[in-house]
Amino acid sequence: MNKCEVREAIIEVDSLPAFLKAMARIAEAHQTHIICFDADEMAGRGHAEKAVDHAVRSWREERAISRSLEMEALLYAAGTRQCRIGTEIGLHEGTNRSYVCLCPPSPAAAEALAGLVDWTDEDWEEIDPARQQRLMDRFGITEEELEAAGGRIRPLVYERVALLEINR
Hints:
Layout: E1 5-13, H1 16-29, E2 33-38, H2 45-60, H3 69-78, H4 83-87, E3 94-103, H5 107-113, E4 118-120, H6 129-139, H7 143-148, H8 154-163
Antiparallel strand pairs: 1-3, 1-4, 2-3
């Protein structure tokens, strides 16, 4: 599988099952995987990229713990083996600010998705105090760890994503 493309999109989801079915049809038609992460639960675009990279590697090496690449990526993003927890970092009904990953990249799939999502070039990299606290809670990051990392939460989240490799 080639490198994956990560893009930002605003997604309105009325019915999650219906939306996921529509995405699956597009993915199948264009021979790609479409993975959506809740940007408000992520430590930025790099978090999505690292989760997808780990998931692709686990599938390539036949070490995956889930039945789909999409769920595998959500599990890595959440740093857990529990599917219920992994889905918490994915789409939800209502308005979603989402990192949308296409694996492999597919301009045709991105164009087809434009009927379901609003692509945007907004910068979602800033981590405000509320988001930082959610990340700390989700990943069990302590104030001491954050201080030792110079107040930078991203490296600590990336570490938790990578630790799923060991904690299988």
